[in-house]
Structure formats: structure tokens, C-alpha cells
# Entry
Amino acid sequence: MTWLNEKERRIAGFAAIAFGVVALLPLVDQGYYLSISVNIVMYVVLCTAWTLFSGPTHYISLATAAFFGIGTYTVALGIDTVPFPLLLVIAALASGLLACVVGIATLRLSGIYFVIFTLGLAELVRQVVTWLQTNFSSSLGLYVFTDFGEQHIYWMLLGLAAIVYITGWLINRSRLGFAMQIIGNDETVAKHVGIDTARAKVILFIISGAFIGIVGAILAPRFSYVQPPSAFNPMISFQVVIMALLGGTKRIWGPLLGVIPFTILFDQVTAYFPNHTSFVIGIAFMAIVYLLPQGVLGRLEDLVRLRKRFRMVSAEEGNNP
Amino acid sequence: MSVIISGLLLGGTYALIAVGLTMQYGVSRIMNLANGENLVFACFVAFWLFTTFAINPILGIVLIVPLAFVLNWLIYTYAMRPLVDRAKNRGQLEVDSILATFGLLFILQGIMKLTFGGGYFNYNFLAVPVTIMGSNYGLNRIVAFIAAAVIAGALYLFLNHTRYGTAIRAVAVDPVSAGLVAIDVPRASAFAFALGGALTAASGALLSTFYTFNADMGIIFTMKALIIVIMGGVGDVRGAVLAALLLGLAETAVATFIDPGLTIAATYALFMLVLLFRPQGIFGKRPS
Amino acid sequence: MKRRTMIKTVAAATLAGVLMAGGAYAQEVIKLGASAPKSGPLAGGAEVSHWPAIKLWLHDVNARGGIDVGGKKMPVEVIEYDDRTSGEEAIKNIQRLATVDKVDFLVAPYATGLNLATAPLIAKYGYPQLAATAVTDGVDEFAKRWPNSFWLLGTSASFAESVADVLVKLRDKGAIGDKVAVVNVADAFGIELMNAGKPAMEAAGFEIVYETSYPLGQQDFAPIISAAQAAEPDAFVAFSYPGDTFGLSAQAKIANLDVGAFYVGVATAFPAYLGANGAAAEGVLGAGAVNPDAPGMAEWRARHKDVTGVDADYWASAMTYSSLQILEQAINKVGSLDKAAVTEAIKGGTFDTVLGEMTLDGNVNRKFWTVGQWQGGKFYGVASTGIGGEAEPVAKNGWE
# Structure
């Protein structure tokens, strides 16, 4: 392991232990806590995959639902004929392909245009799938019956989360990651130093889209019954953006800080205010936006900086005779 | 012929949905995701006025518009201004406003649910057929179309032929430079936001005469409005109206000549084409 | 009312806590869990057919002092969660109800998709699942896959075939000819009905002169109605969802679509349909029904309005209420809160519900209303799968 330095080795070891511990959860509880953990891991993967692309580029993509739905549909259509692991690969390829086409066509759009375009994309794909299903499919109900329990879905998602983190880390170390850093800081500079910005962005978009597609595929057996409104639910796109932004997108583990507290918060709201869910979530949401302008990550970094300064100050005081 | 008339009527409806947002986003730079909820809220108020006090929704607009104006002014001043002030650049404000109005969306939805419940609502007003060139059209839709024309026309005149309108357009083009020429940018932004909200509410009251609505429907209108605003070019009333009419015609034509199953797909396909070939909007100027 | 429920819930929770802490095993209240949409696209339907029915039943059963369990009256508490019309939320809610709240029984979720998404979990915990708002052709397969699940509202095939039967009756009366225009919403329910309905109509000798589908969320129906009108049909059939049901009807009225039979799908049986269309609703056919003149039905509807403040629909409201009556009677019969025993009792039993006597043959209710018609301000069942007491369908006579 000569290619890891001391600090990285420590982090890797710590992460491996953390994953191991988290993976034991189904042995302790098979009920509610497992279910909410499935939701958390699902959003962790979605948001982290989203951040792989949107973090460095600052492009807000609302195409999550499109990739997710393609993954779900891949499984729904093929579950009776194709083995599940192969379906995951197909889901990744299909969503990656869509990301590639869309990326090439649209990444020159900037800001809000890209946002709305990706939103439209999700809807367009959903409409086309519906239309194809109505007109060309002979067997109708897309039922996905497997023997997977919640724990299997949980483990698969957890495994995928590990892969996403490793991929993110590898990207950061690679030439691509370095290029992205420069692009993120100033795209014009990046172009001047000879970085093919379009190519770099498209590659990241493909990676991000493929991961989201796999999540959709893994989740399909959980729904049992797949239909376009639930598979291409635009709320998924919005929730991913929001949780990721609230967590912070500067670092790969930033979204984690958004997903965990907010899934739990939303859940508590559902539990204690069943008749006022919308209202309370709205209030909580606005409060968060105003109180945590830089996301949880930003606030955390502020605290760390504060502590460092405090230490430095006290160290200086200690030096004074 | 009936395709063109139906398409125009539908386009008029879309124009109503979108003009408010084009003001809010174009001038105040607030990407208001709660736009649809604002609209549905007005539907509910019009419904309530009509069923409880037998106030005709056209008259109801006279009550609803000032109310929505004040409410949106307050929302801008107390909820959006802090975001505008702390944003370092336009991208930051876009992100913050998306997040904040997403919260606002839920709050408005929650209020509607608490007050009216989650069921379906509708009422009968001017639902009488009018015959134009051998085909029948709903009078309420024709009234909405005329109202859309009046609203868009008045807005256009206001923006292009009054002093304050010109100031607002200046803010839309460049808030910093507008501030340099002694325009009170915060006030103009608040005004545009409130005006946009009031226009959206007016269209809600009109739409309630022929749509069946419930508290969860806002997002449908928001998506339509977003598409039209972007297609038309941000902050451009002419563009928004043209885009709305274009969409209405395209949807009706696709439904009639190709397949009604593809109308919504056609909307998005058209939208994407416009974005790819004229990303600055139909009337927008290419950035140099 | 809401506050009272909450206080009661808190009181019950405290009581349960005290009892458990004291080691006392005797339970005082029956906890019933309910997860269904209070927001999201399906909330509009759930607020009409699902939640008010639960509220009314809860009121009724507690007014009687609760459910008689082995000679002891036990009041019922309902713990409600909003699933936001999302499968993930619904699954999580069921888990919470089963493992955190530890409810004794569940009210089945709302609509086909959410019932299927939660069925594996509900089966795992062994709760009887009385699906009162799911119409699907898979009922027998599902009943076999999850032996604790019961399917009450019927199958798409029967719903669609009944439409053909009603059209035949109207043709025999001379109200309509052979030409039919058929449209459907491109969603599971609409597609299933179309696939079963079209062959049934063709087999009955009808000619399909216009046929199309439209996407869910469509709001403008002028092109569809005018294209149908151009085909000059004698009957118009739409396998539609709530939003489109209202939209198609309004447009048909505006265009003065001249047909002898006008059928629209889900939500025709909603009170709001009459509210929106007034006199034009007269003669409109729609999916599902009840017999409003059946013994006790008028009184039940009046009580529904009294207690919940809203009118019951003429279809699934009564079925949701009946599903809870079945649960109550099965608990009563078993005399304990044992889930497996109650499930068994539901399988074999005959139940007295607001919809009349009901048995679940192979976990499926085989006798259900399929088509109704607005006649004189009430929605009468005109076709069923053998309930009896059907009203005669009448011709649609203009839109005034």
C-alpha cells in the first residue's frame, strides 16, 4: 500500500470499520430502523453521485429522476428474463448513455438553463416511456417480485455507497479531478491551460448518471409495482438537490451531513405532525436555509476554523511568560 | 381552424400561468418554485368567494389582486431580501432562492390543506358553449384568453411606456448598473416580485373557473411556467406570451394530428429544441 | 376533533407506557395503524374515499364503547401517517407502525401501487391487509403470494367488461347504435381497463370509431373531444383518472358531445362530480358504484356527512368502511387480538357490512359494483358482478 500515505491509510481504515459497523445493522433490527436506514443510504448514494458532477461544476442537475427511473425500468422490464446483477450493469450503461447524449448536447448551457433543461429531460423520458408502454407493451403490470428483503437492498446500497466514495476519491486524485478543480474555480482559466472542459464535464456527468441509474435498479424490487409516476417522480430530483446542497457539495462526504439529519427530521415531522407534514416541513426548510447558508459542511468548517484559531490563541498565551 | 382556436385558447391559459413568474424571476431574480402554489391559492380564494358570498370570480380578482400584491411584497421583504443581501453572486442567489421557495411551497400547501382540505374542488361559472366557426368553446376559457391578452398588453405598456416600467426593465438587465443611475433597486425588485405574485393570483382566479384543482396541484403549473419563461427569454413579457401561444398550438396540433399521448412529450421536446438553438430565449439577444 | 384525537393518543400512549412499566399484560385499547397519502398526487382521492371513512368508523366503533374482544369492550385508537404518495415513505411508515408503535392491526394503504409496495412487509408482520381501494387484475395472484392480503374492490377486467354489458343494454333499448369512441389515461388503471374493455366491446358487436390514450396530468381535452365528435360515435367511453374525468366531462358539455352514453372512470362517483357538473351529470356513467337505496345506506351517508363534515363518495368510501367492519367482526369472532387467527377468521367468514353481506372467496371479494350512473342526483349502481339490486341504465340525454 505504498500509494497511500499515512493519513490516507488512517482514513481508509476508519472508513472501512465504519462501513463494517453500519453493515451489521440488519442483524440488530429488521424493522423500522432498517427501513429508515435504507432511505438514508439511498439518498446518500444519490446525493453523493449527484455531487460528483455538480459539486465541482456548480451545475444544478434535476435529471436525477430520469436516471433513477431508467434504472428502475430496466429492472422492471428484465427481471423475469435477465439475472439481477446483469440488470444492474445494463441500468448503469443505459443511464450512462443518456447522460452522455444529454451532456454533449447541453453542457454548454449554463446556469438556470441547464437546471430547467434537466427538469424537462426527466419529464420527457417519463412521457416517452409511458407512451411506449401504452402502445407497444403486451404484458402490462410491471411487477417486480423478488426474494430480496430490506436487508439485501440495504447491503447492496451500502456496497454501492462504498464504490461511489472510492470513485470520488480516485477522481480527486486523478488528472480529471485536478482539471475539475481548475474548471470549478474558473472555467476560462481552465480552457486557457489546455483543459478540454467539455470532455471533462461529460465524463463526470456520465459517471454520476450511471450511479444514479444503479440506485434506481436496486430500489425496483422494493416497490414491487413499477409505474412511470413513481419511477420518474420529480420530487426525487428536488430532494436530492436540496439534501446535497444543505449538506455541502465542496467535499465528497458533504452530502452525508445533509442526508442523515434531514431524513431523520422529515421522518420525525411525518411521525408527530401527520396532518401538518407539508406546513412543518416548509417551516423547517426555510429555517435551515436562513440559519445554515453554507450547508452543514460550511458550518462545520467554520467551527473547525474557530477551534483552530482558539487553540492558536491559547497556545500563544501559553508561550507568554 | 378549430385546432388553431383551441390552441390559442390553451396558449392564453399558459400565458396567464407564466407572466407572473417572468416578472419574479426576470426582475427580482427569484426562481420562485412556489409560483404554482400561489396560483392554486388564488383558485381556492376565488372558489371560496364564489361559493360563500356568491362573488363572481371576475369581480373576485379585484379583491384577490391587491391581497396577493401585499402578501408577495411581504414575502419578498421578509423572506427573500435577506437572501438577496447575503448572496455574493447570481448563482448563489439562484441556489438560495430555489431552496427557500421550495420551503415556501410546502408552507403554502400546508395552509391550503389546513383551510380547505386535500380533496378536489371546482365550481360552475360561465361554463356555457360559444360557437365560433362551427365549433364550440367554453365561454370561461374565452374570458380567460381575453383577460390574458389584457393583462399581457397592460404589462407590456407599463414596462415599455412608463418611467417606472423602464426602471424595472433596467433592473432586469443589470441590477448593479441600475443602482448606479439612481434606481432604488431593492424597491423595484420588491415591486416586481409583488406584481408577479399578483398577476399569478389573477390568473389563478381565472383558471379556477374551468379547472378542477386541489392543494397538491401547484407543481404542475410551476413546471409549465418555468418552461414558458425560459423559452420566452427571462424577463421578457412578449417572449413569454409568444412561447405560451406556441406551446398551446403545438400541444393541440400534436393531440389532433399525431397522438394525444404525446402532448406533454411534445411540450418538452419543443422546449429542449428552443433551449438548444436559442438558449437565450425567443427574443433574447445573444450574449456577446 | 383533531386535538381531541391527539389528546386521546397521548393519553393512550401514557397509559400503555404505565401499564407496560407496571408489568401488567392486560391491554386496554386496540391500536390501529394507518398510512396513506395526505399529500402528493393521490392525496385528492384519499381525502375523499380513504381518511373520512376511517374517521367515521372510528367514531362509530368508539361510540359503541369499542370492539368486543372476548367479552371485554376495547376502544380503538388510530395512529395516522402521511406517506406523501411515495412507496419509500409508505414502507417506512408500515415499519414504524409495526415495530415502533407496535399497532395491533393496520388499515390497508390507499390505491393499488401503495398496497402492492407495502404488501411484502405487511405479510412479513402477519397483519391482515384488507385492500379496499385497489382495482387490479392481479388479485388472485396477489392473494396467493400474500395469504394475509384481501382484495375487496374488484378487478379491472370486470370493470371494463361491465361497461360493454351496459352499452349492450342501452343498445337493446335503442338508446345508442354500434359506434363507440374509447379513450384512456396512460396509466396502469386506464391501460388495464382499455385492454380488457376494447375486446369486450368488439365482441359485443360494437365498432370502435375513435381510440386514443393521453398522458396522466393532461389538462386540456378539447382536441380529444373534438376528434371523438368528428367520428360521430353513439357512445363515449373514457377510462380516466380524477383530473381527466372532470376535464373530459367539462369539455364534452361545452362541445355538446351528442352521445347516448357517456362513461368516465375514477371520480365520477365523487360528490364533487355532481357539484362540478350539476344537471349535466344526469345520465353520466362511471366506474364503481353503490346502491344508494339499499337498506341503511342513506342513513350511513347522512352520518358520514355529520361526523366527517364531507360527503361520502358513491364507491370506495363505503368499501373502506366495510373493510374496517370486516376487521372488527373478525376480531370479535376470534375474541383476541391474535393477527393470524383474525386473518383466518376473515378468510372463512361472512360479514355484515354497510355494502351488505360480504364473503371473501379465496381472499377476494367476488361481488362488487362495476358501473354506476347519475340518476336524479344520486349515483346508482347499474352493473355489478352479481350483487343484485342494479338500477336500469338510461340514455344520456343532452348536457342541460
